[in-house]
Amino acid sequence: MQKTTLSFKDQILEGIPDILPKLKSYDSSINHAPKRKAILSKEEEKLALKNALRYFDKKYHEELLPEFKNELKTYGRIYMYRLRPDYKMYARPIEEYPAKSKQAAAIMLMIQNNLDYAVAQHPHELITYGGNGAVFSNWAQYRLTMKYLAEMNDEQTLVMYSGHPMGLFPSHKEAPRVVVTNGMMIPNYSKPDDWEKFNALGVTQYGQMTAGSYMYIGPQGIVHGTTITVLNGFRKIKKDPKGNLFVTSGLGGMSGAQPKAGNIAGCITVCAEVNPKITQVRLDQGWIDEKITNLDKLVTRVKKAKSEKETISIAYLGNIVDVWEKFDEANIQIDLGSDQTSLHNPWAGGYYPVDISFEDANEMMANNPELFKEKVQETLRRHAKAINKHTEKGTYFFDYGNAFLLEASRAGADVMSNNPSIGREFKYPSYVQDIMGPMCFDYGFGPFRWVCASGKPEDLLKTDKIACDVLEEIMKDSPEEIQQQMADNIQWIKGAQENKLVVGSQARILYADAEGRMKIAEAFNKAIEKEEIGYVVLGRDHHDVSGTDSPYRETSNIYDGSRFTADMAIHNVIGDSFRGATWISIHNGGGVGWGEVINGGFGMVLDGTKEASKRLKQMLFWDVNNGISRRSWARNEGAIFAIKRAMENEPNLKVTLPNLVDDDLLETN
C-alpha cells in the first residue's frame, strides 16, 4: 500500500507501481461498457489470466489472480481497475508532462484527452467511442505506455501492439516517435467472435479509428462531417433545412454529434437513444435541446416545430424503430433519414432490440447472446420495413456508414436493390456514395484537425482566425468545382467558437484539401516560431480521402471493383511514416466493423522549426493525394480533375491516369 501521495509527474514516471494501489470500488455513476459475453473455454480463461499477470511481479500474482478472475467473470474482460490512476484524466498543457521529448509529451496529452471523462464513452474501460473503440485494453498498458513516453528521447520509437507497449527501440529524429497497430489479424480470423475471443485473451483490441490512434477530439470531429452531410443532403433533395425534418438514432461518442449538427444546419432533428445516461449527458452538454420520453408528446412537438419552422434538436429516449413506426402512423413527413447506432458492433451493445428495456437487453446480451442476436435481427427487419414505408412517401434515406444496411441485409431485411450493380447492391446509398464521396473526398476535402498543446482557449481562437484567413485567401483563386466546399468550411470556422464545440482539448476540425492543409499548417508553424501561439498537434479523422479502405463507407463510391482491397490505407501509413509524421497508426476495424475495414492515421507536432515546415509539406501532400490518385484511377470524375490540378502545381508528381471506355462499345461487342 502506498504511504504517500505522489505528484502527477511522479505517478507517470512510476509506471506500474512497486506497491499495488488499493482496490477501487466500482463507480456506478460512470457510463460503463456492457458486460461482454463469455466466449473463452476453461483453458483459454487460464491463458487470459496468465496474459494479464505477466505485467506484474510474481510476488503479486497470488493477490491479483482472484481479482482478475472476478473481472473476467463479471465483465468478460480484465480491465485491471485497481491500476486506474487517481489523478484527473484530461489533456494537460504540454509543459505539465514529464518528458525528455516534446513530441512524446504531445502524444501523452492526446492519450489523456481520449480518456477524459467528458470525451470517452466508457472511460474506466479505456473505451473512447463506438462501444468498443479502445485506447488500451487494460490500465497496466496505459501506465507502461505513459512511462515509456516520459523516458523517450528523439532517437527512439515506441512500438504499440494493439494497446500493448512492446517497448522503445533505437531509431532517428526523423522517424515516427510512436508506431501503432490495432487488431491486425490474419484475414481468416476477423469475424466478430474472433474479436470477442482474442480481446478477452488480452492479445488484441479494437482501436476504432481515432481512439486507438490517440486522435479523437470529442464529438466535434463528427459534428463537422455530419453538418456537411446534412447540408448537402438537403441540397440533394432541393429543400431548405429550415422547418424540415431529419430523423436518426444514436447519441454515443460519435453519433451524439447528430443533433448538434442538425442545429448548425438549421433543421429539425429527432434522434432516438436507448441509454438514459448518455442521453442525459448530451442534454447536460447542450448537444440536444429537449428530451422526450413519450411518443405522443414527440409527435405533438415535431408538428409544432414544423409549423413554426423551428431549428431544434430533440432526443427521444427509446428505440428508433418506435419513432419510424409512430411517424408513419401519424403521417409525419421525414425529409432526411439515417441511423448512426454502432451496428459495426451489433451483438455487444451497438444496437438494441425493440420492445425490450435497456436493462433487460443488457442482461440478455451477456447471458443469452443467441437470443439477443435473434432479437436484434428481428428489430433490423422491422426497422427496415418502417423506413421503406417512409421512403415510399418521399423520404431520402442514406446509410451513415455504421453498417446499418449491411447488418440489415444479413438479417434478411428488405434493403436490397431490385436492380443491383457493382457497388450499388442496396436500396439506399451510403452517404459517401451520394454526398461525401463525389462532393468532398474525390476533390481531396477531408477532416483536417488540430489541437493547441498549450491548452489555452486564446490559442485556439488565434488558430481559428489563421485558418479562416488562409481559406479566404485560397478561395479567391479556387476553381468553380470547389467553391462550395470552400464556402462551407469558411462558414463553419467562423461559427466554430459560437457553437461551443470544444469538449476536452482545445481542438478544431475543418474539411480542407491538400493545399488548404499545407497552407494552414505552415501558417501555424510560423505563428509558433514567432511565439504567438504554443505547439500545435496536427491530425485527421481516418474517415478521409486516403487513410481508409472501407467498401461500405469511405471507399463505397469506388466502382472499378477495387473497393474490397486495402492497398491505399497501407500505402498511406507507410508513406506518412517516412515523410515526417510524429506518430502513425494502422487498424483493422473501425466505424463499419471488425474485418470490414483497414484504416490508417497520423499525428504531427508543429514546433515552429524549419524541420517541421519541411515535414508538414512532404507528408500532408502525400496524405491527401495518395487517395485522390486511387479515386482517379477508379474513374471518379472529381478525382481526375483534382489529380490533374495537383500535377500542374507539383512537377514531381506523376500519376497514371485512366483512359475512359465508351459504354456503348461494350454493349455492342
UniProtKB/TrEMBL annotation:
The protein's Enzyme Commission number: 4.2.1.49
Domain Urocanase N-terminal span(s) in chain numbering: 89-215
Pathway(s) of this molecule: Amino-acid degradation; L-histidine degradation into L-glutamate; N-formimidoyl-L-glutamate from L-histidine: step 2/3
Localization per Swiss-Prot or TrEMBL: Cytoplasm
Annotated Urocanase C-terminal domain residues: 441-644
Any Pfam family: Urocanase_N
Annotated residues for binding of NAD(+): G130, G131, Q208, E273, Y400, G591
InterPro entries to which the protein is assigned, alphabetical: Urocanase, Urocanase-like, Urocanase_C, Urocanase_central_sf, Urocanase_CS, Urocanase_N, Urocanase_Rossmann-like, Urocanase_sf
Domain of life (superkingdom): Bacteria
Domain named Urocanase Rossmann-like: residues: 218-435
Keywords of the record: Cytoplasm, Histidine metabolism, Lyase, NAD
Top-level class of the enzyme under EC nomenclature: lyase
GO terms for MF: urocanate hydratase activity
Role description: Catalyzes the conversion of urocanate to 4-imidazolone-5-propionate.
Protein name, UniProt field: Urocanate hydratase
Native source species: Winogradskyella echinorum
Gene expressing this chain: hutU
